[in-house]
Every structure is written in C-alpha cells, then in structure tokens.
Specification:
Number of strands of chain A: 0
GO molecular function (chain B): peptide transmembrane transporter activity
Largest sheet of chain B: 8 strands, mixed
Oligomer: heterodimer
Distance between the termini of chain B: 48 Å
CATH architecture of the largest domain in chain B: Roll
Pfam family, one (chain B): SBP_bac_5
Distance between the termini of chain A: 17 Å
Number of helices of chain A: 15
Organism (chain B): Calditerrivibrio nitroreducens
CATH architecture of one domain in chain A: Orthogonal Bundle
Helix content of chain A: over 70%
Largest sheet of chain A: none
Number of strands of chain B: 22
CATH topology of the largest domain in chain B: Dipeptide-binding Protein, domain 3
Protein name (chain B): Peptide-binding protein
Strand content of chain A: under 5%
InterPro entries (chain B): Peptide/Ni-bd, SBP_5, SBP_5_CS, SBP_5_dom
Chain lengths: 327, 541
C-alpha cells in the first residue's frame, strides 16, 4: 500500500509539469499583458511607463524561457511576487483568501451531505411518491435558478425589507470590539445567507446522485436476498442498501477537495466575501501571471491529490477492490 | 520695564506677521472640539492596491492616499492650484526654476518633522529606475533639485514646462522611513505614514481600510473620528448596504440616482449630490480611414448623433452635452465653439458635398462604388457605451450609413484594435486631468504605437498651440491658447464629443457642512461634522 502511494505521488510530478506548461502558455496567449493594465489609456501616466514595466517583469523574454525561470523558482517553492501594484508574494495573497473560502466551502459541503443523503435515500425508497415529486421540483429549482439573482433577491428580502440578516461580508463593522462568543455568533449570522444559497444550489446534483446510486443498490440481488431472509425494511435499506450506495460518494468527496479552494466570482462579489474566486478573476483580468499560475498549481496539485485520496479510501472502504488483490 | 519689553516684542511680532501676506507657519483652521466625533463609511467597488501613491494607478488607492498624504500643491474647490505643504512658490523669469517655500511645523504621523529633505527624496525615488511608478515623465525633465535649507526647495528644469506645477500635487513621501529601503518591499505600501488629515489604522485584506483623525494635522484636526472604506465588489449589494445604512456614502449609477432613490424612506435618510465628473465620453474616428479622414464626413456623423437624446435615454438626463476636451466650469473651457445639434438634413447635405450618393437605391451611400459601411467598436462591461452604439447605429442608418457593432473584452480591444489602429469608429471615454495639457491625446507626435492619439489626429496649428501652452505659466494666456484648440477641434471633429457625465453621490444626511463645488464634495471633507445627538458610531480610541 505504502509503495503504491509513493509511486502515485511521484507520478504526479510529470503530470504537474505538463499541466503547468500548458497553462503557462495558454495564459500568455491571451491578448494583453500586465504592463498594459498598469499603464494604458490613462493620460496621467507617463509614456515610458509601459516599457519600464515590461523590463521589470521580464515580459520581453520568450514564453518558454519565462516558463523555465518560473519552474526553477517553483522547484524551490517560490511562487514569485504578484504583478499587481501591491507587489505582494503570491503565496501570501493566496493565504489571505484561503481560510474564508475553505470555511464557506467546508460548511456548505457538510450541509449539502447532511441534507442530500436523506433526500436521495427517501426519494429512492419512495419513488414517485408525493415526497419524491415535491423534493425533485424544489431541488431542480435550486439547480436552475441563477445564484447571483437569487442571492440579490434574498439579500433584499431578508436584509433590507425584513432586516433579519446581514447582507454582505462575514463580520460586522464593530467586530473588533466583540467578545469571543459574540464574534462566533456574528460570523455564523453573516454566513447564513451565503452558505444557505450555495447549499440550495448544490443539493440537486448530490441528492440525485444518491438517489440513483440508492436505486441501483435496491435492485441488487442481495437486497432481495435480505428481504427473503425476513429482515425488516429499515435494516435492509439502511444497513445493506445504503452502505453500498454510499461507496461512489467517496469518489465525489475526493474529487471535491480541489473545489474547497475554489470560489465563485459572482457569488463572492454579491456577498462581498474576499475569497479565492475574486482573487483568480482579478488576476486573470489583470493578466497577473504569477498569481494565476500559483492558483492553478495549487488547484491541480489538489485535484491529483484528491484523486489519490479517493482511490485509497475506496480501497479501504471496499474490500473487493483493495489494491493488489484480485476480485 | 519687563512688561514693556514684552509688549514691544509682541507688537513687533504681530507687525512682522502682519506684513507678509502668506503665513509661514502651519495655518490652522478654526476647529471646535464639540464637532469631533462619529465615523464615515464609504463603499468602494475596488480594493486599493498600494498605499504609496506613486506606485498605484487605481482610483481607490488614490482616494485613501489623498487623506493620508499631502503634496506641495493641491487643487482647491474651484480646481485652481493652491499651496499645500508649500505655502508659496515662485517661478523664475526664464521659467526654468521653481522655488517652493515649505510650511514649518508640519509633522509626519510618527511625529518626525517634515522638511525639504522629504521633497528631494520623493523626487529621487520617482526618477529611480527601480521604482515601478507610472508618473515619472514629468519629473524626468528636472535637471536637479536643491534644498538650500530645511524649508526651501529649488527645482531646476531642463526646459520651461507649465504642467510641472501640477506634478507637485503628488503625495510627498517620508525620507526617514524610506531611505535605504527598496520601495517595493516597504511596509508603507500597506501601512502608510503621511502628513495628511487622517492616519492609517488598519487594513483588512479584501474587506476594509480604516483611517483615524490626525490630531496634529497642520490645518487642524478633522472633525470625523474615523474614515472607513468598505470593499463591496458588487454595485447592487453596495446599494442594498446603503439602504440598510451600513455605508454612508457611495457613488450611484444614473439608474439608481434617477429611478431607485426617490422613495420617501431614501430621501429622509440621504442627500443626493450630482456635479460634473472629470471625464467625457466620445465617438472617436480612425483618421486614416478613407472615408473618415474627410472632415465633412465627420461633421455629418456629429450632426447625425443625437447627444441630447443619448443623455436622456442612457444617462437619464444626468450629463451635459460635450463640445470639447476641457471641463466646463474651469478656465480652460470655452463655450464659444461650433456645436452640432442633431440635424439629419445638414448631415445628408455634408455627405453629398463629400461625394457620397446612393446610386443603387439600397439605402446605403456609396462613393466610387464602395458602400459606406463601418464598424463601431467599444469595450465590454460598459452598458452605457453599448447603448450609445445602438442609438447611433439607428440614427446613422437614417443618413445612409450602415454600421455593425462589435463589443470586445478590454485587453483584446486595446492590444488588437486600438494599438494596431484596427478600427473605424470607437466609443470610449477620457478622464479630464486637472492639469489641462492636451499633448498626449492631441499632438501629432503621439500618433502610433501605444500612444494615446490612437485616432492619429494631426493638425500643425494645434501642435503649435499645444507646444505654446506647455511653456505658458500665465493662466489667462494659457487658457486663451486652449480655447483656440477647442475651437479647432470643434471644427475638425476628430471626435464627436458626446457628454460629460455627472458624478452621482448619495451621502447620509447626518453629515453637516457638505459643500458642492466644481471639485465635487470631498474638497472640505475635514470640515464635515455630525451633531452630537445624531452620531452613529461611538468608538473607543
């Protein structure tokens, strides 16, 4: 098992190099460059500024040479400095935004699982019942409605008209003066709208997945066999069927690890949450190559890692596919 | 005896200070501690990038820096240059030497005294090749800067250059904090030290920046205890936060200003201000285009552009028709220019004169067999501009010109279309800098490459006037030159000047002593105050 993991980890290196090479070239192919955003179309700015920025960021060198320089730095885990005028190190820019994004994504993820599993299971067991139909309609509405639109409407209704919930940000203006307990309360209070809306939008996918997986399990022979042995319906469904139905969930959870650091631009803008989505969007719009590449490297590393974790936990959870043993 | 002596000294000192018109010492305005208190929260779409002003090019950075730093000079409420850290200045007869006399007793936020050393250091930093600043060109024509004493700065220019004065409005940096430090690594980028009315307190990344009143400000402490800039990237959300009274001041869109803020609830809480902004929107013509290089064609297009209707339809009336590149209300502007009122008959007539005719009867004019078909290009994400494109597409069709609209992402638009002069007609806007020198946008030599005269306007007479204006320090003479330029541009119509949009501001009613002026409302920000019983934020310092 251990040699397997080590082998897989080493396999990730050429894969990462391939991913970064392609990303680096594609990102550089986009028209415009960072120097232009700092200097163009502004009469107050010196004409020499453009060339100065080009030299400063070494943008006059060919793409492949710049990639090589970047890769050499990366091998020392140096992600470089942002091209934006704050000149901050890429890693500290990402580190600033990561906690908020992970917090929101993790809370949403947990809530999605908690809500989706019962919905999926019940819809599978009571297929075509009134409950199934109503939940189907509701979760599909959540899936179909554009998040930003719903977010604005909810912010207006719950925030302005009713005045129950805060509209934007994750803390109050007076946050610094609060006691610890008040601070926790304040953050939860501010999280209700953003988390609620992101959960509402994502339940559909996950609950449908559970439903179909559950339906597959229910139709298996061993379920019929279990009924034949005279086990109660509850035992059959929750002990035998559900356990098997949940196996594919592991894959999904593994694959959502990179999703934990990603954020939606529109969503973060509407709720004024300084998360990864906004950072990535702004860097792309400014052609801030080091930051774009930094986020891509971390994202692709986590994707590969998520795959590996999914494979390993699969093996742990399901004896049939344990690595090295034939079925 | 002693008493008498004292009296004499007192008398002498009053006499001396009475003689000079400008006072050397820091002039304190009258402050009243009863007015001290409360905070103001401003909503901003963008987060400032860098709080060292020479390193930042975004407006939110400069908004914050404007409260933290002072320049040697500043623009007053009528947009005239006046002293700030320098209380007076002299220009030598050959106009190549400017001498600034600095105020005494001005303190940096860390209590170090401000001296001429700081000024010299700021100059040296700007022209240092390792400083990533975009504002260096005005300083590169300086031969040397001398500091005869702590309160005098002599700037020697290689050539006389009138816009030089304006360049000294840039924030002066603290020598004692930055000497020997690589500026891009300095902590002042995130926690600045200036001489201004507000001191930096805190920057929560992506959320807010908070400043605190500077008790030792040379003009006297500002009334409001705190200023906070809250970063809210979405304008709809920002507006909801305004309705919820979580922010006190924000810029409104014309739609919000005209349609969504007239309800009694809003009116009872907020005052709305509208004044001309420092910008104009225009239709620019590629002057190398075989049809558009004819002046009569451009005049025809201007006649076929309904400026009034565009302002009514797109800006809800919140703008003023433009007729030149200078801002109305400043001395540089003149009203005495050819105006192009919407007149399709005149437009048709001019086109006919230029040799266009619809011979094949398809509704589109031709010249030498080539149909008059052009593309209007503008950037994505600006609905005002795309609406203008649709309106002129409609009206230009009435005079027989076929147009297509192309809307492009900003970077693509600039690099692939503007810089390569790969366009027929563009809709864009310029900010109008306080310093009026039109060299970069209108001088012949600025055509080509990444320069701003991308339409390639080349007029020998205008060139000569621009060059004269750059060395003319006399305001009256200089403005006469610019009036002339306006008249020539109005005749040539290299742009159809569309409108000067208005800046639209909503501000909570509890702030008193807000004064609207050509410069906007922020010019006397330090004098705003809130009556004791209306204060919202009580903060422990």
């Amino acid at each position: 098992m251990l040699t397997y993991i080590v082998k897989r980890l080493f396999e990730m290196i050429p894969m990462l190099i391939g991913i970064t090479l392609i990303s680096f070239i594609v990102v550089n192919l986009a028209p415009g460059n960072p120097a232009q955003f700092l200097s163009s179309m502004n009469p107050k700015i010196s004409e020499t500024a453009y060339q100065k920025f080009i030299n400063m960021y070494q943008l006059d060198k060919p793409v492949l040479e710049r990639y090589w320089i970047w890769l050499k730095k990366l091998s020392r885990l140096d992600f470089g400095n942002s091209f934006a005028s704050d000149q901050k190190p890429v890693l500290s820019k990402i580190a600033e935004r990561l906690p908020v994004t992970i917090y929101l994504n993790l809370v949403s993820m947990i809530l999605i699982i908690i809500i989706s599993i019962p919905i999926g299971v019940l819809s599978a067991v009571y297929r075509n019942s009134l409950f199934d139909r109503i939940t189907t309609v509701i979760v599909y509405i959540g899936f179909a409605v554009p998040t930003f639109w719903l977010a604005i409407l909810c912010a207006y209704y719950f925030g302005v008209i009713k005045g129950w919930l805060p509209i934007s940000g994750l803390t109050s203006y007076e946050f610094e003066d609060f006691s610890t307990l008040e601070k926790i309360y304040d953050v939860i209070w501010h999280s209700i709208l953003p988390v609620g809306i992101s959960v509402f939008g994502s339940i559909a996918g996950f609950s449908r997945f559970i439903k179909s997986s559950m339906m597959d399990a229910i139709n298996e022979d061993y379920i019929t066999a279990a009924y034949a042995r005279g086990l109660s319906k509850n035992t059959v469904i929750f002990k035998h069927a559900l356990r098997n139905a949940l196996l594919p969930v592991i894959t999904i959870l593994g694959l959502s690890i990179p999703g934990l650091i990603g954020g939606s631009v529109i969503f973060e803008s509407v709720f004024s949450i300084p998360g990864m989505g906004q950072l990535f969007y702004q860097s792309v719009m400014m052609r801030d190559y080091p930051v774009i590449m930094g986020i891509l490297v971390i994202g692709s590393f986590l994707t590969l890692l998520g795959n590996l974790i999914a494979d390993i936990s699969y093996a742990i959870a399901d004896p049939r596919i344990r690595y090295g043993k034939k079925k | 005896m002693l008493k008498k002596l004292c009296f004499l000294i007192l008398l002498a000192s009053t006499l001396i200070s009475g003689c000079g018109k400008e006072r050397e010492d820091a002039v304190k305005r009258k402050t009243d501690s009863a007015k001290f208190g409360d905070s103001i929260i401003e909503g901003s779409i963008g987060e400032p990038s860098n709080l060292i002003p020479i390193l930042a090019t975004d407006s939110s950075s400069h908004a914050i820096a404007g409260l933290i730093y002072n320049g040697l000079l500043k623009y007053d409420k009528n947009l005239n240059l006046t002293g700030d850290l320098a209380y007076k200045w002299e220009v030598s007869d050959d106009k190549k030497i400017i001498t600034f006399h600095l105020r005494k007793g001005v303190k940096w936020h860390d209590d170090t005294e401000f001296t001429s050393k700081d000024v010299k250091f700021t100059y040296e930093t700007i022209v240092d090749n390792n400083t990533p600043t975009a504002y260096d060109s005005d300083f590169r024509i300086i031969d040397k800067v001398e500091t005869p004493d702590d309160y005098t700065v002599k700037v020697y220019y290689k050539t006389a250059y009138a816009p030089a004065l304006s360049s000294w409005t840039i924030g002066i940096l603290p020598y004692h904090k930055l000497k020997g430090v690589t500026i891009t690594k300095s902590e002042l980028q995130r926690s600045p030290i200036g001489t201004g009315p507000y001191k930096f307190k805190e920057w929560k990344s992506g959320l807010s920046i908070t400043l605190e009143a500077n008790d030792n400000y040379y003009e006297g402490r500002p009334n409001l205890d705190r200023y906070t800039m809250k970063i809210i990237p979405d304008t709809s959300t920002m507006f909801l936060e305004l309705l919820n009274k979580n922010i006190d001041i924000m810029g409104l869109s014309p739609l919000q200003f005209a349609k969504q803020t007239s309800n009694p609830r809003f009116v009872s809480d907020y005052n709305k201000y509208s004044y001309l902004s420092n910008s104009y929107t225009y239709i620019g013509y590629n002057l190398k285009h075989k049809f558009l290089q004819d002046k009569r064609v451009r005049q025809a297009l201007s006649y076929a552009t309904p400026k009034e209707d565009i302002i009514k339809g797109v800006l809800f009336g919140l703008g003023v028709p433009a007729d030149g590149p200078f801002k109305p209300g400043t001395i540089w502007y003149t009203d005495n220019v050819t105006k192009y009122k919407y007149d399709l008959e005149k437009a048709k007539h001019l086109l006919k004169e230029a040799g266009f005719d619809d011979k094949n009867g398809d509704g589109i004019l031709e010249k030498d067999g080539v149909p008059f078909s052009i593309t209007i290009t503008t950037n994505q994400g600006n609905t005002t501009r795309s609406s203008i494109a649709e309106i002129i597409q409609h009206t230009w069709k009435k005079i027989g010109i076929k147009t297509e609209i192309r809307i492009l992402e900003w970077a693509t638009f600039i690099t692939e279309y503007i810089d390569k002069r790969n366009f027929d007609v563009v809709i864009l806007g310029w900010t109008i800098p306080m310093e009026p020198d039109p060299y970069d946008v209108w001088h012949s030599s600025r055509c080509g490459g990444k320069n701003l005269n991308f339409i390639c306007y080349q007029n020998k007479e205008v060139d000569k006037l621009i060059e004269q204006g750059r060395i003319e320090f006399d305001l009256k003479k200089r403005s006469d030159i610019y009036h002339k330029i306006s008249q020539i541009l109005a005749e040539d119509q290299p742009y159809t000047f569309l409108f000067y949009p208005k800046a639209l501001i909503a501000l909570h009613k509890r702030f008193k002593n807000v004064e609207e002026a050509p410069a906007g409302i922020m010019h006397n920000f330090i004098d705003w105050y809130v009556e004791k019983d209306q204060r919202r934020y009580k903060l422990t310092r």
